[in-house]
Design goal:
mainly alpha, 258 residues
């Protein structure tokens, strides 16, 4: 099992140096590390979509999420399935399957970042900072509304205020709640565990935990994969022999500078 205190940088470097599997497309193998192309990025996004689809298939067999007003019996049924102590062998097998699929998605995100020359940790921290401005605690605590509900107060709309290029990176000094574990102290946001704690704290501040049920999160994941695919959907698969088609030089998207 990987150490949760492993840094994002170490993971990204390790995944970048791992040889590609035998099912890698020939045009991906020919892609040099210098000339990153739209085609190779699109191929990796297809793989991400496939992994997300596999997890959706598994979620057809997991218990339905409880609603906010559901009774205790349905609440217990959902929680007992996800509990590690569940005695059901079928539940345990399905949980392991979901865990494996989540791991594949996580690794694939690193792969896409390597192809696009993006630092995943920095991107996550900048996104957390942006979401903090889109969803101020005092406005959205206990609410599940979209950020546009608060645009009149935040000034952030669908077309304004969304760029993260010049966003400051959130670090440990911005988090004033320590972990309640045997180690104590604040988490290092350069590590997987630290980022996980930061995101959980973000949701805890806004009382969003009740909305973050397993099936809700998977549907949210699908939406994010769709938004990523949208960035590349009309780009076409560029001929790798044409060095002028290096998308890191031409692509106008905001992630180039992350």
């Amino acid at each position: 099992m990987a150490d949760p205190r492993t840094s994002f940088a170490s993971l990204q470097q390790q995944i970048a140096s791992t040889p590609k599997s035998n099912n890698t497309r020939d045009d991906d193998r020919q892609c040099s590390s210098v000339s990153t192309t739209v085609a190779s990025a699109r191929n990796e996004i297809f793989r991400l979509g496939a992994y997300a689809g596999s997890m959706c298939t598994s979620f057809l067999s997991v218990p339905n999420d409880r609603s906010n007003s559901s009774n205790a019996s349905s609440n217990d049924a959902s929680n007992s399935f996800w509990a590690a102590s569940s005695s059901s062998s079928s539940s345990s097998q399905l949980r392991d399957e979901v865990a494996t699929q989540l791991g594949m998605i996580f690794i694939q995100l690193f792969t896409i970042c390597n192809v696009c020359d993006i630092d995943l940790c920095t991107s996550v921290l900048k996104k957390v900072e942006l979401n903090g401005r889109k969803y101020p605690v005092e406005l959205c605590k206990g609410k599940s509304g979209k950020y546009t509900n608060y645009s009149s107060q935040t000034g952030i709309t669908k077309s304004e205020g969304q760029s993260t290029i010049d966003s400051p990176i959130k670090d440990n000094s911005d988090v004033d709640v320590s972990r309640n574990d045997e180690d104590g102290g604040e988490e290092d946001t350069a590590t997987v565990e630290g980022i996980t704690f930061l995101i959980r704290h973000f949701a805890y501040e806004r009382l969003w935990n009740r909305f973050h049920t397993p099936r809700n999160i998977v549907l949210a994941l699908l939406g994010e994969v769709g938004e990523l695919a949208e960035l590349f959907q009309w780009s076409g698969d560029v001929d790798k022999t044409d060095e002028s088609n290096d998308f890191t030089a031409e692509c106008p998207w905001p992630y180039k500078s992350v």
